[in-house]
């Protein structure tokens, strides 16, 4: 029976431990892609993924493997991102699988995201297959990592696969273990169809393309499918598997992972996490939903050219289909005009979305400085949620402000514990506890305001620990804090999009730094521009941007043509993400200045 020969698994790991490279080797060793088609990090199909060397989207593909027992098996492999901002992608991948291949770097050992992924896998009742990767590295210590897996994670690691994805070692062992240890799916082939939508993407020709995991039943082209959350029905046009190119099939059955198109034009109708059934024999219950992720960071996104506003809405809708953790709603800014308030899982997510909007939809955008959601109690007793600093009520109307806190788990070698504590303290953290994992490593736990974490905590943590620390965090709730709104005035006008919310103790420092930083990034204008930082009516810092004296190229005497051309081009590029705020041209960097301080 075919189902007994299906194996569905995800590859999970801390970032850079080698998931994508391992997936490459699996594709190659099973002959799924030929030598000629092969390139590094094959499944990172977005340009952005290739350039940055990180996986952003999950990727599901089918491949065939002939095992030592002579049987042909069907593998569905899902490669997942490792960065904490994209753990939503991981949790959805896991919901479509029976097993998880857990990759651990033989030189680094277990890190924070390794553990986070293990918890996700356990929550989904998955069989975990440990792989100790990069054993080719001189610093590799597979025995120590093996022990760590047993001690820290508490799973058997005696026969963990010892691998080098780079040098193609251990891959056969892994493929055999997948056959032996990952359970085959056990869905009911005869029963009513239940299939989980775990991803989707908009294709201009085919409409919405859904990635699904069929739990029960069989779907054929021509069947009328029904989306269980809203009852909408569609006729299946095409279904099939990715290998890694789409290959149409005659059916997808319980246990299969594949894609479906059904001329779905209305993007809102199919949401990731929904269950599909068949209209003529519907299931009574949808499949269990996986954990929804709520955005943690908000910012405004505005078109540089206001006539792109409609296109921006279109682009956001299409991206949301592919990234259900993205949220947006319309907002207006006095300084920037019409745009959208968008919610993200973290700063990397925000950065990636802005870049995808610009590249995939050819838009030119300005993003405002990010903010978390604050809870504000007004003097009349009512509470409001503020995700945009410019909407903070007047100081005189505020009774109290609460901000979100996270429990942060920071895993480091003992020698860096001091540095971690110093940094966490500086970021307003409260020490909770410290756990010794083994002779070398410590798990340091702090409660820290989310706003401090999302800004530059991770980068600073890395630089304070020579890159050895890893971080995982979860929201634990709201706590009162002494917070104030800091306004920025350009040319004596408050620029709403530059307002930030800061702790009162840091307000003066932040104000001074911000004003200095803005002076660096805002180019000179035809006239002198005063920059001021204010709390309420009170100016706490100020400086001036001097006026432009002459044409920047004049001093090149027109002699060096290429140099002159370069400078002009550079100016043109600089213009790209630049927005007129009143009479002042403000570049994108100005809105991000807050991230770039200390
Ligand atoms: P991911 O973030 O987990 O997907 O990791 P990647 O597959 O992108 O790999 C991260 C880096 O580690 C890349 O530079 C790879 O070339 C490198 N790498 C992956 N596997 C191995 C290995 O077995 N040995 C060595 N030396 N390097 C590896
Ligand atoms: Mg990767």
From TrEMBL:
Its main location: membrane. Keywords: Cell membrane, GTP-binding, Hydrolase, Membrane, Nucleotide-binding, Protein biosynthesis. GO terms for molecular function: GTP binding; GTPase activity; ribosome binding; translation elongation factor activity. GTP binds at residues 16-21, 133-136. The gene is lepA. It catalyses: GTP + H2O = GDP + phosphate + H(+). One of its GO terms (biological process) is positive regulation of translation. It is a peripheral membrane protein. This is Elongation factor 4. Pfam families: EFG_C, EFG_III, GTP_EFTU, GTP_EFTU_D2, LepA_C.
């Amino acid at each position: 029976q075919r189902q007994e020969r299906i194996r569905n698994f995800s590859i999970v790991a801390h970032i850079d431990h080698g998931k994508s490279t391992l997936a490459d080797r699996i594709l190659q060793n099973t002959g799924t892609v030929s030598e000629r088609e092969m390139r590094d990090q094959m499944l990172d199909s977005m340009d952005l993924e290739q350039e940055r060397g990180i996986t952003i989207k999950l990727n599901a593909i089918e491949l065939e493997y002939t095992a030592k027992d002579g049987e042909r098996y069907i593998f569905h492999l899902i490669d997942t991102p490792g960065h904490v901002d994209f753990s939503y992608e991981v949790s959805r991948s896991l919901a479509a699988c029976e097993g998880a291949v857990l990759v651990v770097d033989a030189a680094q050992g277990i890190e924070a995201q390794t553990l986070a992924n293990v918890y996700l896998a356990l929550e989904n009742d998955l069989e975990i297959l440990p792989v100790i990767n990069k054993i080719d590295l001189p610093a590799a210590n597979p025995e120590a990592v093996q022990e760590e897996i047993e001690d820290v994670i508490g799973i058997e690691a005696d026969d963990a696969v010892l691998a080098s994805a780079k040098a193609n070692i251990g891959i056969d062992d892994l493929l055999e273990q997948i056959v032996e240890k990952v359970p085959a799916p056990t869905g009911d082939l005869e029963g009513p169809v239940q299939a989980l939508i775990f991803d989707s993407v908009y294709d201009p020709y085919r409409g919405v393309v859904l990635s699904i995991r069929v739990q029960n039943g069989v779907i054929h082209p021509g069947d009328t499918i029904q989306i269980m959350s809203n009852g909408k029905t569609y006729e299946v046009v095409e279904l099939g598997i990715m290998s890694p190119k789409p290959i149409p099939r005659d059916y997808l059955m319980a246990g299969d992972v594949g894609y479906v198109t059904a001329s779905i034009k209305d993007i809102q109708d199919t949401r990731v996490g929904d269950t599909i059934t068949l209209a003529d024999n519907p299931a009574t219950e949808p499949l269990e939903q996986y954990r929804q992720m709520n955005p943690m960071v908000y910012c405004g996104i505005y078109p540089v050219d206001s006539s792109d506003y409609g296109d921006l809405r279109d682009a956001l809708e299409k991206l949301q289909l592919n990234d259900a953790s993205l949220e947006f709603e319309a907002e207006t800014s006095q300084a920037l005009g019409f745009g959208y308030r968008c919610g993200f899982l973290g700063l990397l997510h925000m950065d990636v979305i802005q870049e995808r909007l610009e590249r995939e939809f050819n838009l030119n955008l300005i993003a405002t400085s990010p903010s978390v959601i604050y809870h504000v109690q007004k003097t009349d007793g009512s509470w409001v949620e503020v995700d945009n600093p410019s909407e903070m009520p007047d100081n005189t109307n505020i009774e109290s402000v609460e901000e979100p806190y996270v429990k942060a788990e920071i895993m480091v070698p003992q020698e860096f514990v001091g540095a971690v504590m110093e940094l966490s303290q500086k970021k307003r953290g409260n020490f909770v506890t410290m756990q010794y994992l083994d002779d070398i490593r410590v798990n340091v736990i702090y409660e820290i305001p989310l706003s401090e974490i999302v800004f530059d905590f991770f980068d600073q943590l890395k630089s304070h620990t020579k890159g050895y620390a890893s971080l995982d965090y979860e929201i634990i709730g709201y706590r009162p804090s002494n917070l104030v709104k800091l306004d920025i005035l350009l040319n004596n006008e408050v620029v709403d999009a530059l307002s930030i919310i800061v702790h009162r103790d840091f307000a003066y420092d932040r104000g001074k730094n911000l004003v200095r930083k803005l002076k660096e990034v805002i180019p000179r204008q035809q006239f002198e521009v005063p920059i001021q930082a204010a709390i309420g009516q009170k100016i706490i810092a100020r400086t001036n941007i001097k006026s432009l004296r002459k044409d920047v190229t004049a001093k090149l005497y027109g002699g060096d043509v290429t140099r002159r051309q370069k400078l002009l081009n550079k100016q043109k590029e600089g213009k790209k993400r630049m927005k007129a705020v009143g009479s002042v041209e403000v570049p994108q960097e100005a809105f991000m200045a807050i991230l770039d301080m200390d």
